[in-house]
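User: Here's a structure from my thesis project, written as structure tokens. My advisor, Dr. K., wants to see whether a designed sequence matches the one we expressed. Can you design one independently, without my sequence as a hint?
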């Protein structure tokens, strides 16, 4: 079964074809994928401009679809079903992918299904030959979400805890901006942190001893104050290069420490021994390595997708669509997108 996946919830136009006959291949079941990032378009404005995002998705969707078919060496009639991101996200941007996907499916006479963006992230580490088995705890860490979820099967999710303010990725992005680094901040902080001392500054780990919820706004304020006190803003780059690297490393360390401790607590609370991390921040190497070490101590394992499948992409939507269709689900002809949607 070949499922076309479409992701247009924010500033990436992602298309991919998941082919269930390729599950055992070393390509995560993917026949092909294309990804176009609007980062440069929005960089001028210091953040994603919703109207421009929608216009750019519309401009790129059909040419990218054509490119994907060529890459896969197939005809559009070879596609068996279409999955598109239905929410959460920017409403205009969501509607471009949803309408394209629903209309194409109607024209081809095949089923279409709307997917929750975070379910796409959650299931992405399960693509491929040796997926971690259910049940597991999922740590979803993206630019818009930070959640701990007990996943008992496809569609069986219980939220154990979540951020009461900023998301982890958002905090990476804001700390990066304060340090004079470009968007997206996560990978740039990680790079700068390589030459810094993670123990140079003791940043707060908020709500560590209170349940499984997170709070990151205090950490953001602490970084702001630290930059002011040490003049690490990036304006006098040469003289304070080491200070900036130390701030980046200390921030990343505090963030990772918080995520790891809460994840460990969640595993113990629900009596599970598998943690699956997903979303853009799960690409972070320091997070992965610390989880590998810390979870080994409690006989638990950590699982994640290759870095390219951690950030937004069409492949995760195609795969989530495949799983939902296998369970007998599909959507009717009416297109409805949900900009704010709890999983
Ligand atoms: O999942 P994603 O691509 O988009 C959303 O659904 O939000 O996540 C994007 C977030 C951004 O905040 C970005 O800075 C962060 O993921 N990110 C990282 C890394 N790569 C991406 N954060 C830390 N370390 C990374 N290597
Ligand atoms: Zn995402």
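Assistant: Designed independently from the structure alone:
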């Amino acid at each position: 079964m070949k499922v076309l996946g479409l992701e247009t919830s924010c500033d990436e136009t992602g298309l991919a074809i998941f082919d269930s006959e390729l599950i055992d291949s070393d390509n995560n079941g993917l026949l092909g994928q294309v990804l176009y990032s609007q980062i440069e378009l929005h960089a001028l404005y210091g953040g994603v401009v919703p109207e421009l995002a929608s216009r750019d998705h519309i401009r790129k969707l059909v040419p990218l679809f054509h490119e994907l078919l060529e890459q896969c060496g197939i005809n559009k009639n070879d596609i068996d079903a279409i999955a598109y991101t239905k929410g959460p996200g920017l409403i205009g941007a969501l509607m471009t992918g949803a309408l394209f996907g629903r209309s194409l499916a109607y024209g081809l006479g095949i089923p279409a299904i709307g997917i929750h963006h975070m379910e796409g992230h959650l299931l992405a580490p399960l693509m491929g030959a040796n997926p971690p088995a259910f049940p597991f705890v999922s740590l979803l860490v993206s630019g818009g979400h930070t959640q701990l979820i007990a996943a008992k099967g496809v569609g069986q999710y219980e939220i154990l805890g979540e951020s009461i303010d900023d998301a982890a990725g958002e905090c990476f992005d804001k700390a990066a901006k304060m340090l004079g680094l470009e968007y997206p901040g996560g990978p740039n902080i990680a790079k700068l942190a390589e030459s810094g001392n993670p123990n140079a500054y003791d940043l707060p780990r908020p709500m560590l001893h209170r349940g499984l919820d997170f709070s990151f706004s205090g950490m953001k304020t602490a970084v702001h104050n630290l930059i002011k006190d040490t003049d690490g803003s990036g304006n006098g780059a040469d003289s304070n290069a080491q200070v900036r690297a130390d701030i980046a490393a200390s921030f990343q360390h505090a963030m990772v420490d918080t995520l790891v401790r809460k994840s460990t607590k969640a595993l113990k609370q629900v009596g599970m021994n598998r943690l699956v991390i997903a979303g853009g921040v799960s690409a972070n190497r320091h997070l992965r390595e610390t989880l590998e070490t810390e979870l080994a101590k409690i006989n638990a394992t950590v699982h994640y997708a290759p870095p390219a499948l951690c950030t937004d992409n069409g492949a995760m939507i195609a795969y989530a669509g495949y799983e939902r269709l296998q369970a007998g689900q599909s959507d009717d002809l009416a297109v409805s997108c949900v900009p704010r949607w709890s999983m």
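When you compare it with your expressed construct, this may help: The radius of gyration is 20 Å.
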